[in-house]
Amino acid sequence: MNLLEKLFLICGLLAAGAVGVIALLAVGVEIPILSEQAGVARDPADEMADGIGMPPPQFPEDEEDEPGLLAELSSVDGAAWGGPGGAVAGLDDASAEEAPLNDQVIAALGRDPLVDKMKAGLDVKDTGQVLAFLMATFTAKGTKLGEEDIEFLFTALGEQEDFGLRNLLFAHLQRIGGDTVTEGVLAFLGDEKNPAAIGRALSVLKAQGDEKAVEGLVNYLGSTKNRKLQDMAFKNLLGTKSDAAVDPLLSVLRNTKNKRTRQYALAALTQLGGATGAEAVLSYAASSDPFERGIGTKSLRDLRNREAVPVLADSLGRSSDTVLRTNVVRTLGRIKDPRAVHSVSQVALYGENRSIRTEAIKSLAQIGSADALPALKTIVETDQNAGIRRNAARTISYIERQARRVAAKRTATKPIRK
Question: Which pTM value belongs to this model?
Answer without folding.
Answer: 0.77
